[in-house]
Amino acid sequence: MRIMEPIKPVNIAELRAMRARNEKIASLTCYDASFALIEDRAGVDMILIGDSLGMVMHGGNTTTPVTVSDIVYHSRCVAPHLKRAFLVADLPFLSYATLDRALDSSMRLMQEGGAKMVKLEGGREQASIVEYLAVRGVPVCAHLGLQPQFVHKMGAFKVQGRDDAAAEAMIHDAHVLAEAGADLLLLECIPAELGRRITEASPVPVIGIGAGASVDGQILVLQDILNISPLVTLGRRPRFVKNYMQGGVDIQGAIRSYVDEVKGAAYPAPEHCFG
């Protein structure tokens, strides 16, 4: 009689080990129990309760209206159904504007929502927040590049870091945030070459969404790869998104294909990257 090996949950140490052995990290967003089960069984390494839920679940135009309670609710729907995947939850808009607020919001995401890590947006200006959380046992993912919570300040969803000064500033930000205690970096919508430079210099794993193929792992919004998000439905599919439902596969097959292509470095292809 064959004894089944127990499922080993992914943790920060395993994400670092994956980076060390050049194994790509496959990540997706998730917001409910049904998809949590499918993603976990399909081999997704890391799941994000993203504030993207404000757009793909709530139908908004930005992530700004999403609250801590929204993230806690969706995280609580997902967390109990994960046997292997590592669960990260977004700190939503202004929920980490002060040290005390950041700690209180993180406490809720981890205690009530079951998250294993929190994610926040911003560069070196967030270093004090990252350090404050890290020394208190809160794992942090720092999000650079296009920052959806800053859309009203940036003016639009657009590629970041294209000029030399902006690229050098982002490289510096990545260094400062890792030094402050960030356990992961997430890069969104930046040139592939900049993604490579940041990844090579980073002491921690780097996850990309529209950041090229040289990062340590990839993340996409679940509804985007299933071709059902408002953006793709309206014909505004981001360059970095691939439709994994093409060809008539089922949902589980689409998610497995995504994981396989990330692991095999077939995704992202050049057409999904920014120059």
Automatic annotation (TrEMBL):
Q: Which residues are listed for Mg(2+) binding in this entry? A: 51, 90, 121
Pathway where it operates: Cofactor biosynthesis; (R)-pantothenate biosynthesis; (R)-pantoate from 3-methyl-2-oxobutanoate: step 1/2
GO MF annotations in UniProt: 3-methyl-2-oxobutanoate hydroxymethyltransferase activity; magnesium ion binding; methyltransferase activity
Q: What is its EC number?
A: 2.1.2.11
List positions binding 3-methyl-2-oxobutanoate.
51-52, 90, 119
InterPro entries assigned: Pantoate_hydroxy_MeTrfase, Pyrv/PenolPyrv_kinase-like_dom, Pyrv_kinase-like_dom_sf
One GO biological-process annotation of the entry reads: methylation
GO cellular component terms given for this protein: cytoplasm
Q: Where in the cell is it found?
A: Cytoplasm
Question: Predominant location of this chain?
Answer: cytoplasm
Q: What highest taxon heads this organism's lineage?
A: Bacteria
UniProt keywords, alphabetically: Cytoplasm, Magnesium, Metal-binding, Methyltransferase, Pantothenate biosynthesis, Transferase
Cofactor binding mode and count: Binds 1 Mg(2+) ion per subunit.
Instruction: Write down the required cofactor(s).
Output: Mg(2+)
Catalytic site positions = 188 (proton acceptor)
Its assembly, as annotated, is: Homodecamer; pentamer of dimers.
What's this protein's family per the entry?
Answer: Belongs to the PanB family.
- Quote the function comment for this protein: Catalyzes the reversible reaction in which hydroxymethyl group from 5,10-methylenetetrahydrofolate is transferred onto alpha-ketoisovalerate to form ketopantoate.
Question: How is this protein named in the record?
Answer: 3-methyl-2-oxobutanoate hydroxymethyltransferase
Q: Which organism is it from?
A: Hydrocarboniphaga effusa AP103
